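for the writeup, i need someone to sanity check this before i put it in the appendix. the sequnce is what the collaborator sent (i think, or maybe the updated version? ugh). structure was predicted straight from it, no edits. if anything looks off just tell me and ill rerun, i have time this weekend
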Amino acid sequence: MSEHVYKVVELTGSSSSSVEDAVQNAITRASKTLHHIRWFEVVETRGVVQEGKVAHWQVTLKLGFTLDD
């Protein structure tokens, strides 16, 4: 097994649909400029409540990616 070095960045994704969509939105956007994304870790979940219902999700996550050679 080869050795890996990772760079970690922290992002916040959002969605009016679900936590999963908020995570996917963050990863999709990050993948436009970051290469070799390998893992993520959800570190915080928040939501906005309007009229007694969840109106919006925000998920803060850490993304790990390998560095270019």
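Residues 1 and 66 are 15 Å apart (CA to CA). Helices lie at 19-30.
thx in advance!!
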